[in-house]
Specification:
Elements: H1 5-34, H2 38-55, H3 59-63, E1 66-68, E2 78-85, E3 88-92, H4 100-111, E4 115-119, H5 125-138, E5 144-146, H6 151-159, E6 164-168, H7 171-183, E7 188-191, E8 197-200, H8 206-218, E9 230-234, H9 238-253, H10 269-279, E10 283-286, E11 290-291, E12 296-297, E13 300-303, H11 310-313, E14 320-326, H12 329-337, E15 344-348, H13 352-361, E16 366-369, E17 390-391, H14 397-402, E18 404-411, H15 428-435
Parallel strand pairs: 3-4, 3-6, 4-5, 6-7, 8-9, 8-15, 9-14, 13-14, 15-16
Antiparallel strand pairs: 1-2, 2-18, 7-17, 10-13, 11-12
Helix pairs in contact: 1-2, 1-5, 2-4, 8-9
The structure holds nicotinamide-adenine-dinucleotide.
């Protein structure tokens, strides 16, 4: 079942009004799953999805057949790209931005005319429940179905034949998804994670740098796929930056971050335990306090970290920031190049030659110069990884494109009949070479 353009627009309008209607419950669910402050929950989850829907005011134009130039040999015909729905799409989403990461791809899949089955994460149960209610209100089941459950439900769904699978999650499950898709030759988009470096060069405005790093790292308690995972800072300015990071934390979350209403919680006890292990025997620059009963881990900085320790080889995905002093930018480039290509990279510097050097020598999904996370807030930029951080990208028009098949069509009439390409070829080759 492919959706017509007017059906797509109607369903997207109905999704928008369902989200608006459920807004208080969505905020409650995000607070229950992740302790998310309403400001963060609204901006990074609800309004993010509403903005993705808003971008689709251009959908009619994007979906129209697109004429492209032809060559002499197609004359007098015309060449066209027709964008058509792929068919049935499976979306598997994670728990860290459980609302946005389920619905942003869903908006793209519907905009392109597909039907969808969504399997949100079992680790954010309150939000997954609300997602199923929002979708039940907005769509008939045959257009969007929501399957609640864990790996068992995902495995059953993966055994079916789909026309596209869109997966957001970790590398381990990404491999399971791709293996299952290979059985049916189903195309996949994999939005994965990894360790996103943050580089600080000595010319940077350190006060602003500290503020932007603290914001991007500790937003959602560090449970952000594009959060700065670790810091490489030019050794000359390390002490000053650590001091400024401490000051900024106080400014943002007060003397006792546990009492701050603006700081979230770790999603569950298993992740709390996993993260707590990084703190054992570590040299703490700031933070370090934990409380299992409320799944609280303070915004924490680590010093004297070795490059081959677990905290520097595994994706942290929590509020722990290793800070490594590095001799110079060449050494930073060397460290990043020796590791898998990251999903995001951030570099702080006032020197445009250095930022251009970093952009040309390092490969990463996307990132910012002198900021963190904010590249995601522009739906005109494609979002996705490279190498082990993922394949394919979406947001805005890119979502529409990734869920569309581009059908190439040449339209000819019957007159005039140009016979040049037909045998007998005679000396047509000579003529052809002269013409081209
Ligand atoms: P995950 O890979 O554990 O789970 C993602 C989804 O896969 C969930 O719906 C889950 O139920 C399902 N799943 C789990 N085990 C499965 C199995 N054996 N077979 C089939 N499906 C299975 O990821 P997560 O813990 O929810 O999220 C954290 C990871 O996701 C991190 O690595 C993070 O970097 C990454 N992430 C990436 C992005 C991005 O946009 N690139 C965004 C958020 C999170």
């Amino acid at each position: 079942m492919a959706l017509s353009l007017s059906q797509r627009l109607d369903f997207l309008a109905s999704l928008k009004s369902s989200i608006e209607q459920f807004e208080p419950k969505i905020l409650e669910a995000l607070a229950s799953d992740l302790g998310r402050p309403p400001f963060e929950a609204y901006t990074s989850e609800i309004s993010f999805v509403l903005d993705e829907i808003k971008v689709l005011k251009k959908l009619e134009r994007w979906a129209a057949p697109e004429r492209v130039r032809g060559s002499l040999f197609q004359w007098p015909g015309s060449s066209w790209i027709y964008r058509e729905p792929l068919g049935r799409v499976l979306i598997l989403s994670p728990w860290n931005y459980p609302f946005q990461l389920a619905l942003a791809p869903l908006v793209g899949a519907l905009a392109a005319g597909n039907t969808v089955v969504l399997k949100p994460s079992e680790l954010s149960p309150a939000t997954s429940q609300i997602l199923s209610e929002v979708c039940a209100k907005a769509f008939p089941k045959e257009v969007v179905g929501v399957a609640l459950g864990g790996a068992d439900v995902a495995s059953r769904l993966l055994a079916e034949k789909w026309d596209h699978i869109f997966f957001t999650g970790g590398e381990r499950v990404g491999k399971i998804v791709m293996t299952a898709a290979a059985k049916h030759l189903t195309p996949v988009t994999l939005e994965l994670g990894g360790k996103s470096p943050c580089l600080v060069e000595k010319s940077a405005d350190l006060k602003v740098t500290a503020r932007r790093i603290v914001w991007g790292k500790f937003y959602n308690s560090g449970q952000t796929c594009v959060a700065p995972d670790y810091l490489l800072v030019e050794e000359e300015v390390e002490k000053e930056l650590v001091g400024l990071l401490r000051d900024t934390l106080k400014e943002f979350f007060g003397e006792i971050p546990k009492q701050s209403k603006d700081y979230g919680r770790i999603v569950n006890a298993a992740h709390f335990e996993r993260l707590s292990k990084y703190l054992q025997g570590a040299k703490i620059a700031f933070g370090g306090e934990t409380d299992l009963s409320t799944r609280f881990i303070a915004p924490t900085g680590l010093l004297d970290v070795s490059l081959d320790s677990p905290v520097m080889t595994e994706e942290i995905f929590g509020p722990i920031l290793p800070i490594l002093p590095v001799k110079d930018v060449s050494k930073m480039v060397e460290i990043v190049q020796a590791r898998p290509k990251p999903l995001a990279l951030y570099a702080f510097t006032k020197n445009p030659q250095i930022s251009e050097r970093i952009l040309s020598e390092l490969s990463f999904g996307g990132g910012c110069i002198n900021d963190t996370l904010m590249h995601l807030a522009n739906s005109r930029l494609p979002f996705g990884g490279v190498g082990t951080s993922g394949m394919g990208n979406y947001h805005g028009r890119y979502s529409f494109e990734i869920f569309s098949h581009k059908k190439a069509v040449l339209k000819q009439g019957f007159f005039p009949e140009v016979k040049f390409r037909y045998p007998p070829y005679g000396n047509k080759l000579k003529l052809l070479k002269k013409l081209s």
